[in-house]
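Q: What structure does this chain adopt?
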Amino acid sequence: MNLQRSQFLSINELQEQYLNKPVKNGVKTNDKGLTFEEIWKEKTGQLEEGLRFSKHAANRLADRSITLSDNQLDRLTQGAKRAGEKGIKESLVMVDQLAFIVNVPNHTVITAMEQTETNENIFTNIDGAVII
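A:
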């Protein structure tokens, strides 16, 4: 009987190809050595040091004609970092006359406004504030 090799991989070949991936700090990685978390952060634009703006926050900035200088953005990032160091999850970060609600664990600005726009200066659903 003459058996020819088919185009399909054997179970052992599949197992070797998909299950025996390199490991980095106890976590399996892809062919390029990246973990799932690293790939996710790269694809979603979440960087360890920087902040990203949600679609809602970006729309609020555009609607209110708010532009951030590099200095203000750096201070906002530092404020979010300091909030994280204190264990704050949802933070109000004040930069000059601008108010930002930041989801600290996700490094995401949820909304932005000028302080003069806030009704009665009441902020809800936050567990801490940083004034820079």
